[in-house]
Amino acid sequence: MAKLSLRGVVKKFGDNTVCDGIDLDVEEGQMVCLIGASGAGKSTLLRCINLLEAVEDGEIFLDGEDIAEPGLNPQGVRARIGMVFQSFNLFPHMTALENAMLAPRRVHGRSKADLVGEVEELFKRFGLADRMHNYPDQLSGGQQQRVAIIRALAMRPEVMLFDEITSALDPQLVGEVLDVLLMLKQQGMTMVLATHEMGFARQAADKVCFLKDGKIIEQGPPELLFGSPQRDETKAFLARALK
Amino acid sequence: MTPTKAAGMTRRERYEAQQRKRSLIIAATSTVVVVACLMIFVPMSPGWEKVQRSFFNGGVLADTFPKLLDAFKVNVMIFAWSAPAIAILGLLVALARDAKSPALFPLRIFGAAFTDVFRGVPVILTVYLIGFGIPGLGLPRPWNSPYIWGSLALILTYSAYVAEIFRAGIDSVHQSQRSAALSLGLTERQVMRDVVLPQAIRNVVPSQMNMLIALQKDVSLLSFIGPVEIFRQAGVFKSLTANFTPYVGAAIIFLIVTIPATRYADYLMAKQMRDRS
What we know:
CATH topology of the largest domain in chain B: MetI-like fold
Structural class of chain A: alpha/beta
Strand content of chain A: 15-25%
CATH class of the domain at 4-88 and 159-241 in chain A: Alpha Beta
Order of helices and strands of chain A: EEEHEEHEHHHEHEHEEHH
Number of strands of chain A: 10
Oligomer: heterodimer
Number of domains of chain B: 2
Helix content of chain A: 25-40%
Distance between the termini of chain B: 39 Å
Number of strands of chain B: 0
Largest interface: A-B, 26 and 17 residues
Largest sheet of chain B: none
Radius of gyration of chain A: 18 Å
Mean pLDDT of chain B: 90
Order of helices and strands of chain B: HHHHHHHHHH
Radius of gyration of chain B: 26 Å
């Protein structure tokens, strides 16, 4: 059974159908990359998986349980699924360490003393031990984004969602964030990424999905999707993206 | 070495120094001219002698000033217990107006009605209605004290304004902060308490400072229902001395407090603008 399965997911904003019947399976430990032009529905799809958006129709299974069930309490699901955003969204009134400890304290009811060693370990592992006590505005974009990843990991999620997490970064900072993703992949984290980093997707993904107008037009292992795309839309997109 | 560096300054620095000197001279000259005109022409007006005697009488000022200061302690006292109550009630009303759960719908209605009513009625009218009306119910001592009901009138009025400022502060926190907090599994209530409110409150500190300054002045309205605070005391002295100087004395005391406070609020406001840009 797939760790995460989407069946016929539909999301509309008014008359605008942003996700139009999405089917997707993510196996345990897989890294799945969603590619496609801006507005294709990648970000919205991730927000639906994390229940930040309520889906109109379809099912989302996490370990076989339908989390898109209306009326289901979303907090329990979100605590199991981590999400990182394009614009970092760190809490500016807290230090990096406090950012990472807030949710485990509030959601899992753990004490600061109990948590601090474990969270400091995360900061060390991602090379930010000397930055733990800084506030977000004292950190570079790349550092902020790594703190945001640490903040999500501190909840010990089973699945991580990454929404174009390198798009707001200077080119020379992109690498340090992508390295973190590779580390997570090695540790067996199940991940879904919306990304414009074609090189990274090709090299690191287990599966790549091309989205257009809210539909998955084509999906497959990266060597197939990038190497010999079957659909004309995919070819046209890749021709432009890889230019 | 180029000649522009001769004075140890760059071309730009020398130009700016020259401009500064020029502005200083112009500002000083125009100030001197305006002050001189005032000093020459105001005393030339026919009623000046009389105005000076009844508003700027040094003897009366010296006699009454210490007692006015004493009376000002009453203002400070009323201010001191009203301000925290306003902060708390204002925040509660702001939260009530943002309540989402259907069970709290009455609270939302109440919050909206509260802010509409107390922002819509002049402060003095609220002070009269509550300050005279509630003790009129025949309450026993000390519950008929105008201090209590006058303060309550101020607290209700100011809470309505303060609540609206808090609400604007809550709206000013970007939606993405809520998304990030929710995505971590926090409840709506935790998101508000731990993420949104701390930022919202910080954003509105300068505006709330201005409300405090306004409150400090409006405490004087309680004089109409009894408490002998500085304005009332000045009125007493005016009658005793048949002279308006005590009012000027009271104004001076207010300014001693409000000018630094206003400057500080302006400074906070300017700092916030800088931080945002």
